[in-house]
Amino acid sequence: MSKHSHAAILSIFGGIVTEHIAALRDALAKLAAPSPSDEDLHQFRVTLRRLRSAWVTFAPVLPASFVAKWKPRLRALAASTGPVREWDVLLTDWLPAVQASLLDSDKAGRAWLDEAFEKSQEVRNRAWGELRAGLASPDVPEMLFELEQAVAAFHADGEPGRHSRFARARAGALRKKLIRRGRHPKRSSAPRLHRARIAAKQWRYLYEAFYPALGAHAAKRYRSHLRKLQDALGEVHDASVSLDCVADLLDEPPPLSIVSAFHKRASAARKRAGRGLRWVRSHKAL
Description:
Layout: H1 3-31, H2 38-57, H3 64-101, H4 107-136, H5 139-152, H6 164-181, H7 190-214, H8 220-249, H9 256-282
């Protein structure tokens, strides 16, 4: 890669970071309102995930000192939003789905679920309050301002240009990472498949958010396949994490019918992930 290309790609990265910082500020303003919505938090998390993915996409051109400073800080900010997301997934998806699958005669299962709903909502509300307080502190806008200043030096005058070779090389690298992490989806551990999900998400964000800036294009069907694969791998992770989280809140362990419902859905998700990964192995990155 020539020095000119390196500088041009780094300038594109700077523009992407600046754009995402503006979106994060808008989301923070909505979250600071008297009655923020769950969608406001979702948009903040999605924007932050895309921003963090830029560090993966543009890794070959980023200064090591810049990566060492900012990757951990953004990871910590993202981690602060995790607990609320996990309780929301449990309350709006997993527990209702399990409830719908139980037999009317399963009194023990329904009683356990009723208590699970109540206690999970209490913990979620506390986590939401702690998160709002953290996001309302001056630390977050100060960090965003500091990051904005840090990438200002990357901006260069002139047209962005086309960097399709760089874009496709990064897609190829993420494809290899996904294939490596996604081996044996029917029997791999949930944490390993969660790492595969992260690779699928980073690859999809590369196509959706960064390819246009680099002057490249990816077919819609590729993005669709990656989204479905990401969702399937996410269900495997959520099945493991969600059941453990709610089980820790209750005095009684979950009845067999509850455990079976979680495992049945996770098993189906593993099968879908296997089909998605076979598709990835049989198609080169665009």
